[in-house]
Specification:
2 copies of one chain form a homodimer. By secondary structure, chain A is α+β, with helices and mostly antiparallel strands. Chain A is built from 11 helices and 14 strands.
């Protein structure tokens, strides 16, 4: 067995297992199933960093009191087109699906709808929520904020987060188009992966623990922002337009090293646009397919095998993994098995 | 006199001059003054690429019938929280200030407000419009779309636009924070500047006319997207969530080489969030200043003189240039003087 050995599991088995685990630590069946669906979706899409590998950490966060398994989520502000949803430290998938659902409802009545989600926890793969909207013929934009884990441009330490942005729109025969990107030049998961495999990093990807640029995967400590001031600035604006509006600042608390700043906390922003209010939806869908087709006909760059649109690779991987199962690294499976034993939950069949 | 010689002019003289020019080509005094204010603002902020250097091109666009100097702008869709504003080929500053004004009004009544702006023309510096909102205590996000001028990731030709994104929020004593960034790794203006000065480009900035990567400023033809698939994907999503929703596709028309695709056309997206509906605005302002202060205290990277937040350098430049005047390149002044002579408008004093 090599370090790259994998175990294949069906999405359904994995969902059932993860649901059982989160039920065991106190979540309702519905909430546990939502968390399971969002995490397993990331594995189906090939985004392992946001998949079930996070389960042990989520369980720790429940034990530490950072994730509230029985949140009393409530709408604090309710305007014609927006809500401020206090998530009461719910698991991110529970809070963000609720937020996006409310944003879609507001958009249906007001043309555009916004849910500001306060005090959620790890929001998982943001594309899940924007795709929820796109599947219903609604365009969506989502942002999420976490604590500083990325260098701020001009500094040698973490100052902002890799705060992601996701935008999704409905499509035609080719399906929705969904972008889900972090504001770092590379995902943290990619640095971890390079460390495991010993692959040198590209210049401009990371700083070491002393704040110096490094290409040594073992020394890489924090990622650099996408395009320097652009990624750092975009990340900061996401904090300002989300965390500060919901009165739950993350960056300042951590940089000032307050007690609150050491806690696991996140905030989210979910915007929905009911495009059928502005145009003919069937025409819109055809136009999405049309521009995608036009891009795919462009002459290829040297070495480029294919021209892809946002979310296309993930959709292909999902189709394949729904059929053939999800390959999980043996290390992840072992960790989940240990957790299952500890919590007295039956392990999934492999 | 060197190629770098500049002529200094006050903002007020420049605004008067540009207003007179656009009045002469048929705009109302109000519209001409709006265009002048937006262009001169870019020069005040140090963003010469979006300043009065654009005036001759705008005049050409009026002559070609692409900019309509007497637009009959009208709201086509009006929902509780959103409008679709058909700009009837108005000058971008006229359409976008109107759009942002409407988005702010909707946000005041509905919490969030959206204006989708159809069939505008060159939107100029997007930060002007988000800052309009921020000055009134409202957070804003704006997008704009134009024709393909940037390589799509994986292709060797232009496939998408350098479509910018701007986000602004009100601040406290330090003033608003405003990000205004293109989705290209560098602005087109920077490539032009490098060509003029013969400065080699960084790798990853541009392709030559044959679609091969180049660092030769004379050979640089199109910019590459910020972070490869990220910038290309973000640009595409901006087209999909803006141009396609307002039924005025730009990218597909150009890539398919239709007659419409050869015309100068843009679309815009202006979103406003009335943050006072969700939190205490004075506290919000203090929190913005607080996080900015925390970032500025971070240890500096080697070679970094200062840690800046989005829009800070522009605000400093504006304060200095409002006092000392705007230095314009002699070439720009000569071009404006020729235009003034041709149109029979008095040149500004230098």
């Amino acid at each position: 067995m090599t370090a790259n050995a994998t175990v294949t599991v069906t999405a359904e088995s994995l969902r059932r297992f993860v649901t059982a685990l989160f039920t065991r630590v106190g979540m309702s069946d519905t909430h546990a199933a939502t968390v399971a669906d969002v995490l397993v979706w990331a594995d189906l899409r090939g985004v392992a960093s946001h998949g079930v590998t996070r389960v042990p950490r989520y369980v720790e966060l429940v034990a530490a009191g950072d994730i509230n398994p029985r949140p009393a989520m409530q709408v604090r502000t309710d305007t014609r087109a927006a809500v401020l949803l206090d998530a009461d430290r719910a698991a991110g998938p529970v809070a963000m699906t609720d937020g996006m659902r409310r944003a879609i409802e507001k958009a249906r009545s007001a043309g555009v709808g916004l849910a500001l989600v306060r005090a959620t926890t790890h929001t998982a793969a943001l594309g899940y929520y924007t795709l929820m909207a796109a599947r219903e013929g609604v365009a969506a934009l989502a942002l999420s904020c976490s604590w500083p884990n990325m260098a701020y441009h001009g500094s040698r330490v973490a100052g902002v987060s890799t705060n992601p942005i996701s935008i999704a729109v409905p499509g035609g025969d080719r399906g929705p188009v969904v972008l889900d990107m972090a504001t770092g030049v590379v995902a943290l998961g990619k640095l971890v992966q390079a460390r495991k495999t010993g692959t040198p990093l590209a210049p401009g990807w990371a700083l070491d623990a002393h704040g110096n640029p490094t290409t040594d995967p073992a020394a890489a400590h924090i990622p650099l922002p996408l395009g320097g001031p652009k990624g750092a600035g975009l990340s900061l604006m996401i904090e300002l337009i989300t965390s500060l509006v919901v009165s739950n600042p993350l960056v300042a608390e951590t940089l000032e090293d307050t007690a609150l700043g050491q806690r696991h906390r996140q905030n989210g922003f979910a915007l929905a646009v009911d495009i059928a209010r502005f145009c003919d939806l069937p025409t819109y869908r055809r136009e999405v397919d049309r521009v995608v087709a036009a891009l795919k006909r462009l002459p290829r760059a040297d070495g480029a095998v294919d021209i892809l649109v946002p979310g296309e690779r993930g959709a292909r991987t999902l189709a394949q993994r729904e059929r053939d199962g999800i390959p999980l690294p043996r290390a992840t499976v072992d960790e989940l098995a240990a957790l299952a034993t500890r919590l007295g939950v039956a392990m999934f069949a492999t």
